Amino acid sequence: MPMSEYVQSIRDRVGTDLLLLPAVTAVIRDGEQFLLARDASGLWSLIGGGVEPGEEPADAVVREVFEETGARVQIIGIVGAYGGPPLAVEYPNGDRATYITTAYECRLLSPATPDLDEIVELGWFDRDAIPALARREWIDRVLADVPRAEPTVAASLASEPGVHIAVADALSEDDFDALQRLLPQLSSTATFDRARIEAMLRHDGTDLVVAREDGALVGMATLASFPLPTGVRGHLDDVVVDETLRGRGIARALLEAVIELARTRRLRTLDLTSRPSRESAIRLYEAVGFERRDSLLMRYAGDLG
Fold first, then answer.
1. Which CATH code fits 156-287?
2. Which residues are registered as beta bridge partners of 37?
3. Which of 85, 162, 239, 270 could form a disulfide with 221 if both were Cys (CB 3.0 to 4.6 A apart)?
4. Run of H or E including 167
């Protein structure tokens, strides 16, 4: 952990004496895959850092992940608090410190890339493969406290090299170019409007779930959530995967991810509409748990402009 101005001010007064410092750790997982970071020492570890004076620990873990990887995360819950000899360190300059860290289980919301300063490499590793890594062994205690997850379609796809499913909170220029290519594959009447998409990303009731292969955006699905007197409802829309990559389970992974997101939003219902002619899409919707409803879809035909 690099030295903050606050810690430096203490070091200026106490020299190399032992300090007890608060820290946070991000346990970023996708099913049974965990995101680890390797620093210049060559050792793999969980991402984390120190808590600044006056900073909430939950805010600190979100900040640390963003500073070191450029990624946004959603906190799922607290795994535990850790300290003791495994978290004591003596730095090359003689400074001694021992850390008390609060570990948070997190979900990745956007792509992560190493900052090449504190972190030189990032990697997803299966839980059972981590003990064979050159690593900081205190992370074993943390991971042992993380309950095992049942593998899902989205998680298994995301564990394959180069493919990942996540909620997007920001889009790059390449992402916008990809959406411009995808929209005509979704509907012949769909038009690309960057301002509209940017407004959607800022809207609290809309989540854009994207599929990436080797960092490139290759598919998407949208979840719209809205409160009603009868409960918070959800609607799934605009599911599309690049036509060159269909048949690999990416669409199903997107659907599974949206369903899981609906669960975390505690939605009462999740609906979608589909043209009867889209038989293969309807079979996929039914395969992941959607049912046909005996209802009539109607759309206002007058001018709303």
1. 3.40.630.30
2. 45, 122
3. 239
4. strand 163-168
Q: What does the pLDDT look like over 203-220, one tens digit per residue? A: 989 999 999 988 889 999
Q: What whole-number distance in Å separates Cα of residue 15 and Cα of residue 289?
A: 62
Q: What is the pLDDT of residues 177-203, one digit of tens each?
A: 999 999 999 888 888 999 999 999 989
User: What is the residue extent of each domain of the chain?
Assistant: 5-150, 156-287
Taking a C-beta distance cutoff of 8 angstroms, is the pair 106, 28 a contact? yes
Burial class (CB in 10 A: 0-12, 13-18, 19+), 79: buried
Of the candidates 4, 42, 40, the one whose C-alpha atom is nearest the C-alpha of residue 23 is: 4
CATH of domain 5-150: 3.90.79.10
The 10 Å CB-count burial string (b at 16+, else e) for 9-28 is eebeeeeeeeeebbbbbbbb
